[in-house]
Amino acid sequence: MNHAVANSTLLRNARIVLPERTLEAAGLLIENGRISRVFDSSTDASSTADSQLDLTGLTLFPGFIDVHLHGAVGVDTMAASPDDLRRVSEFLARRGVTAWMPTLVPAAAEQYERATSAIEDAMKQTSIGAAEQCSEYRLQSGPADSEKPQTEPGSLNTCPARVLGVHYEGPFVSSQQCGALHSKHFRAYHGPADLDSLPTVKDEKAVHLMTLAPEIDGGIALIKELTKRGWITSIGHTRANPGMLDEASRAGARHMTHFMNAMTPLHHRAPGPVGWGLINDEVTCDIIADGVHLDPAVLILILRAKKAERISLISDAIAAAGLDDGEYQVWGEKISVKDGRTQNLRGSIAGSVITVLDAVRMMLTLGASEPEVARMASLNPARLLRIDHDCGTLEEGKRADFVALDKALNARLTSIGGEIIRNS
Ligand SMILES: [Zn+2]
C-alpha cells in the first residue's frame, strides 16, 4: 500500500457509478478532500490537477457505509480500545468501507461505558481532515516505514474508515427474538431516566442509532423519546404485530434492522413484521446479504418488493470477520466459523464474517444494477444516518469517499476524504 497526497487529484478513464446511471470513461476531480467535478468523459477533464491517476478498467463506487458492525480482525466493539477500533477501520478501508457504526450488544452498564468511550476516541482520530490525519500517521511512523510491508496489525500507515457514532442493538428488544444477543441484559422502558443511563458518544457530529422492539413495555414511548433526542430508531429483534408497527412508524421508527432475521417470519395468516415491512413503502430496511442469513432467492424477493431505494446493505460482522475459519470467543461464548457461517453453542447464527464489499458482490451477482448497488451500499445508509448531504454518492461537493473495483470486483483503491490508498 502507498499513499498519493495532493490537494487536487484528477482521476481519469474510470467508470463512475452515479445514483441513476454509470458513466463510461469518465473523470473525477478531487480538491481538498472533496469531489469538485465529475466529468462525463475524460477528454473534458481539465489537466490542472496536482496529480493524475489513470483508472482504466476500474469502476468507482461511492464509499460503502456499514451501519451495523460488531467487529473484525479479532476486535470486538464491546471490548475494543480506540486503537483496536482503528484497526477495524483500517481493515474496512481496504475493502471499500469508508465509514461505519460500531454496534453494541446488550451488556452491563460498565461495559457500555467502556465501549462508548473507546468509540468516542476512535471517532476523534478518524474524523479529522483525512489528508491531515494520514500525513500525521506518516510523521508518526517515519519515512523509513514506507519500505516495510504494510500489513502488520495496527500499522499506522493506512487511512482508516470513519467512525460515525454508535449503534445500540438493544437493550430494549424482545426476549423472544434474541438471535445471538444475551437476554439477561434486555430491558423494558420506564421513562427518560432509562435512556439517561445509556452512555452517548460525546461528539457533536456523533450519530446515535438504536435497534429496538416496539412491543416491549414502554416501546412506543421509547421511540418518541429517542426521536426527540435526535436518535435514529430501527425496528428489530421483534415480534410486533402490524398494528403495533404502525404505531411505531407514527412515533418515528421507519427502518428495520437485518430485515427477516430475528423477527417473526412471514405467515400467510399472520404477516407480522416481515409482511408489514414488505408492503409499507415508507419503511426502509437493511439486510445481511451473505447468502447465509438470507437465501439468495429471498434476497431477490426483498429487492423486488422493497426496491433498491429502500434497502441498505449491512455486514453485522463479528470479530472473526477477516480471519480464518475456526472457533472464537465472542460475547462470552464460543462461536464457530465454518465456510462463512457463524454459529453459537445454542445453534443460532451469530452474526456474519462478511464486509459490505461481499454483500455488494452478492447483490451484483443476483442481478442488481451498479447504481442500485451503490444506493444500497452508500446512499441509503447515508440517508438513514442523515449524512447524505456530505457523503453517499459521487457528486460534486461531497467528500471524496469512494472505492475502485476491478472487473473481478476486488477493491483496488480506496479514497477516504481524498486520501488514496492502493490495495494492491
Ligand atoms: Zn448485530
Describe, in plain words, how this protein is organized in 3D.
Helix 1 packs across helix 2 (109-127) and helix 9 (356-365) packs antiparallel against helix 10 (370-384). The protein has helices at 82-93, 109-127, 130-141, 192-196, 219-228, 242-251, 272-279, 296-306, 356-365, 370-384, and strands at residues 3-4, 8-17, 22-31, 34-39, 51-54, 59-62, 64-69, 71-72, 75-76, 97-104, 162-163, 165-169, 207-212, 232-235, 255-256, 284-288, 311-314, 326-330, 333-338, 341-344, 402-405, 411-416, 419-422. It has a domain at 64-128 and 153-164 and 283-390: TIM Barrel (Alpha-Beta Barrel). The protein is globular, with a radius of gyration of 21 Å. The strands form 5 sheets. Strands 1, 2, 3, 4, 5, 6, 21, 22 and 23 form a 9-stranded mixed β-sheet that branches. Strands 7, 10, 11, 12, 13 and 14 form a 6-stranded parallel β-sheet that branches. A hairpin with a 2-residue loop joins strand 3 (22-31) and strand 4. It is α/β, with parallel strands linked by helices and 424 residues long. Mean pLDDT is 91; it is low at 1-5 and 133-157. Bound molecules: zinc ion.
Short overview:
This protein is an alpha/beta fold and 424 residues long.
Descriptive tags:
10 helices; TIM Barrel; alpha/beta; six-stranded parallel beta sheet; nine-stranded mixed beta sheet; 424 residues; disordered N terminus; single chain; binds zinc ion
Proportion in β-strands:
25-35%
The biggest sheet amounts to: 9 strands, mixed
Helix segment tally? 10
Percent helix, as a range, is 25-40%
Q: Give the names of the bound compounds.
A: zinc ion
